[in-house]
Amino acid sequence: MSDRYDLSAIAGDRRDISRRELLRRAGIGAGAVSMSAFLAACGVGGSNETGDQNQDDGLTTTKENGELNFANWPLYIDRAKGRRPTLDDFTKASGIQVNYKENIQDNETFFGTIQEPLANDQAIEWDIVVLTDWMIARMIRLGYLEELDHSLLPNFEAHAGQIYKDPVYDPSNAHSVPWQSGITGIGYDPKLTGGEITSFNQLFDPSLEGKVGMFKEMRDTFTLTLLSLDIDPQEASIADIEAATEKLIEQREQGIVRQYYGNEYADALLRGDLAATMAWSGDVFQLQFDNPDLRFVVPDEGGVLWVDNMAIPQNAANPIDAHTFMDFVYDPEIAAQITGWVNYICPVPEAQDLLLKQGEKDSYYKTVAESPLVFPTPEMEANLHGYKDLTADEEEQWQDLFQSVIQG
Amino acid sequence: MARRSRRWSPVPYLLTLPGALWLTVFFIVPMFTMFSVSFQEGNFEEGFVFTGYWQNYTNVLTRYDTQLFRSLAYGLIVTLVTLCLSYPMAYWIARRGGKNKNLFLLLILLPFFTPFIIRTLAWKQLLGDNSIILGTLKGWNLLPESYQVLATSTAVLSGLIYNFLPFMALPLYVALERMDPSLLDAATDLYSNRRQAFLRVTLPLSLPGVFAGSLLTFIPAVGDFINADLLGGVNTVMIGNVIQREFVTNLDYPEGAALSFLLMGMIVIGVFLYARALGTEELTG
User: How many CB atoms sit inside 10 A of residue A95's CB?
Assistant: First the structure.
């Protein structure tokens, strides 16, 4: 497959501090963060509110307020010399001041912190939040998001890639537009596996005993396992999930799985503790700068395309400023600037040419532009699947089964 | 000596008031809230309602009994090993430390000037399959290529023992240091040999330290989730990891709360039995 390539020629070519390096430093604090999140979660009592009472009463305002509160994930926007060029450019172009916070560590934890005010139809602090597609679907269902006014988003109409328009989780992008996306597939080190990995079933091979990493992210793990059982994830029934659970438990009991990982799988793969692991495309792209042998592959049975989206929470104070920003990042120049640093999949295909042009001066950008991990090939895209949108009941059933896998 | 008035005075009560208020607001109120949450039913989308749903307890007990008992077993092992490691060390510092006692105590504490997480992450680096330690030994063919320490219960237990050692060593030191050495002379005068003197004088007098050290080690070790998270693998999941996941990822507050109270109940019963076994008078020393 074309999604393997050699990076040794440019390894170590990045002058500025790399996202990878930042990630490694940030990882030290991860445990502390989850602890505080844990404590925060303890304070949430049972509220009896439902989403039903959240009617759409329109945006709170019809004009720009010159202010934007933006909650995003860590290391998910370009940095240079301690500044964030995209935000600086935005303020210069629009006069809107951005209060940017990297306070989303994972979807569930963040949801836990904003659910209570949203369920009570109150405003939260943020005008834009970035959340993964399935969480966007859940929040739309609960009435927690404002509808977007697409007349304010001409750049999105003009420049967004075709697969990002009218997605299953948010028909006609009524409530969200993509920020970045990525692929869940397999990352591996051919030196340790002793050969190429092409199929997800190879992660169930007893010869890799103790050297396989799986995710504790339920949706990723179940979706890839369903695909390996030849089941369409969108149509998965509880019986299908039980079959997947059985397959995963057998894998664990045979001692093949080393650990169920969150973000820390990346370090384990780099250190050689893992030979093959479920992996996110953007991470492996970064890891290849440290170990050019590492490869990323979309399993033959299919991989997952997940999309992180920008959305405006119900009753946000500055919804028009939020629209202005959403449209701003669909300017191909800006999209190229963000992707050039973040290295996840860019929703603006035109950014590829701009990065190639930049690559004439700096081979790093050429690598980004030519990587199928940042700009996937059409064959890859054809073999990617989305997550199933789960109801609250399904979610609980899936979670319970998944617990029996990972809490061995 | 001046005679103190025996009349009731409000001052001591007023002085305890801030502490009592603090505990009420930040301990008792949350405890009651969580206790009521543990009897709620529902899901995170539609909200949770109090229905007196006690089945939360039986559900989590049947589903997570392995992790619950594993955690208790880990806690016991950690307490015993830290006790065996710390006792001679604390004894030596208290009796033979001389002028340098404070220096030795500082040496025990020194690693703990670094945060917990960083120390544990350092272990992860050191014990990796191809790390400086294992990689080198494998290179010399002293270990098989597939040998691993990380992701085993040995790694988790070692991490816990290392991280909780001072909580055992310091109370032991305090108890042993407080002991009057002339008692040992008296024992010798009464024809006891060194072994008898230890068993009948030193050990009973150090029991308050053993008790305090055991509690300070056992209770946090049972509930710990960082060591299992960073050093463990698929068969070392502790109850702390399950509780953390129930709250943070699954947003299943009632089951998380029920598990927390089950764990607390087990610890309270365990500590009560332990106190009875050691004899409470000795503990107040």
Answer: 11
CA of A408 to nearest chain B CA: how many angstroms apart? Answer: 5
C-alpha distances (whole Å) from A128 to each of A69, A143, B167 are 7, 16, 46
Chain A residues with beta carbon closer than 8 angstroms to that of B252 = 396, 399
What is the distance in angstroms between the CA of the first residue and the CA of the last residue of chain B?
A: 26
On whether the CB atoms of residues A306 and A73 are closer than 8 A, the answer is no
- Mutate: best of B59, B129, B145, partner A, most A CBs <10 A: B129
Which residue segments constitute the domains of chain B, with CATH numbers given?
A: 16-53 (no CATH), 65-284 (1.10.3720.10)
Collapsed DSSP state (helix, strand, coil) of residue B246: helix
Q: Give A321-348 as a DSSP string.
A: HHHHHHHHTTSHHHHHHHHHHH-SB-S-
In 10 A of CB A313, how many CB atoms? 24
What CA–CA distance (Å, rounded) separates B104 from B92? Answer: 10
Checking if the pLDDT of A49 tops 80, the result is: no
Residue of B nearest to A407 (CA): B237
Q: Taking the alpha carbons of B126, B130, B135, B141 in that order, is the dihedral positive or negative?
A: positive
In angstroms, the CA A262 to CA B24 distance is 37
Q: What is the DSSP letter of A371?
A: -
Q: How many residues does chain A have?
A: 408
Q: Which helix (H) or strand (E) covers residue B55, if one does? A: helix B55-96
Distance CA B277, CA A405 (A): 40
Residues A274, A265 contacting (CB under 8 angstroms)? yes
Q: Is B130 within 8 Å of A272 when comparing Cβ atoms?
A: yes
Out of A41, A46, A210, whose CB is closest to B248? Answer: A41
Alpha-carbon distance of B149 to A307, in angstroms, equals 37
Q: Cα–Cα distance between B275 and A253 in angstroms, integer?
A: 40
A325-355 tens-digit pLDDT: 999 999 999 999 999 999 999 999 999 999 9
Shortest Cα distance from A282 to chain B (angstroms)? 23
For residue B146, what pLDDT is reported?
82
- CB crowding B249-270: b at 16 or more within 10 Å, else e: bbbbbbbbbbbbbbbbebbeeb
Shortest CA gap A42–chain B (Å): 7
Tokens at residue A406, please? 């990972």
Of A50, A209, A396, the CB nearest to B47: A50
State whether ipTM is beyond 0.90: no
Domains, chain A, with CATH or none: 18-25+58-181+306-375 (3.40.190.10), 183-305+386-406 (3.40.190.10)
